[in-house]
Sequence to fold (535 residues):
Amino acid sequence: MSEKAINYLNECLALEKKFEVSPRLISLELASQSTDEFLGVGVRDIASTTAFQCYAKGVTAMKPRLEENAQKTLDSTLEAGHHTTRMHASFTWKMMVSRDVVHDFFHNFPYYNTSQQSQRYVEVKSGNFLVPSGLDSKQRELFLNSARFANDKYFEMLPLLTPEIEKRMRKIYPESSWNNPERRGDLNEKIKKLSQEVARYVLPINQFTTLDYTLNELQLIRLYRASLLPNVSNEARYMVAKMIEAVSVRDPQILEELQVPLEDEREYGVSDQFIQEGKKEFDAMLGDRKSMLLSFDPQTRGVVAMAVRNVLGVPKEQMSDKDALSRLMDPTKNKLLADVFDSGINDPLTQCLRLINFNNAVRLSHAGDSQRQRHRTIPGVTPPMESIFDGEVDCFQPMVVRENQQLLDFFIETVVMEIENVNKCLEAGIPRRDAISLIPNSHNIRLIETGDGLDYLHRRKLRLCNNAQEEIFFMDLEQTQQTLVVFPEMVNMLMAPCALRKKIGKTPYCPEGERFCGQAMWNEDINGYFSRRII
Fold:
């Protein structure tokens, strides 16, 4: 193992001193389990055995492999980048970290799985936020007061939201539902959750969240390798080190896999003026929209039609482009489009959607982009938080807030004070990364995302539902409208999940069960979705 890599690991573990209230690795919950006959197999044994299998004439037994040939193979494949053998072992950790580090690091790449505590469904615990150490008494008081202010405003906002959300819900659900004691209880619980969802926009991004987080071995050592890049925070470095430490207790071989992290001196967010000019340019392009389609190759239509005929074994003279696209994109002819298991991923016909590519410019709040990130197969190029803050108020206003003057006044007053507090922290000499962790969830982020037709179909089936969170719902709705301008044949597949199910005759139309939004969206044209969304 590299002494330099291990020394760096220990330096990262020592970063715990950088926090007065620190993130926490609760446990290593799961690790790749060996069957009884393969007990004692570590990550390097797995990697060497699977490497040998590539060239073996028969079956290569999984077993401990300490022989010199195995070690040479491991070292050479690691150095050369032949890393697929490092993807067989996987680990799941339970951790408590800030939403800031989740967004900027743990969810900012595709190859992970996570189940994260929701601020929509779980009321926030007051005072549960990351606190840096090393601040003098004045800085510490200013930081704590700023974070507590945001927490207090969250709890003040909850009762203000309740009557407005109930009023809107009464427009959706019939009076009979409210008169039924059991149903009314469900609706009151929904009011509570929706209130929490809106109020969370005033919480700071350094608020803690608890999550289960899964990586394979390659992704773990890749995060470690990238942890010295300038966009990676001390919190991220510390947590990666704790994750590796937890694995090493069970499997010391992981330490032999560590490579010296890369360093880079690039700068993000050079000046407030640059950030402001970039924002103006981006927003001028978007206008009032959340998202704008940047590029689409018009020749794609013919390419996809050709692919459909190719997989079906039908010549063009027997199947026109129009018919080929209909065979692929009409759910009455391709029922896999409506499947909640996305079985089309394994279907040659449905895979033709992979040939359609879209690039979109997007503006979402930190909270909204955190939702967008969960669709890992539609990656976004997102700037680090340090390079988007210019000292100005730049916050998303939820529908319920902007359409109620009392709520709007409260919200604007709150976020203005929150940004003022961040600026005061910067003026007081609090490190920029720590000060910016106090910006509210509502602060806007601008990014470029890209995805193919199959992955966008998956997201639309989830996010064109009225139960989806407001920002990502309208973002996907706008993207759908723009997609249909350049590829109108997709009209029968880009719609709410209930509408897709109606097309193939699958009942109940709504797949959400007791979470039914209360509106028969399956009868609506896609353009009618805008007016039907009232919460």
User: Anything to note?
Assistant: The longest strand covers residues 90-98. The radius of gyration is 26 Å. Residues 26 and 95 are 5 Å apart (CA to CA). The chain has 20 helices and ten strands.
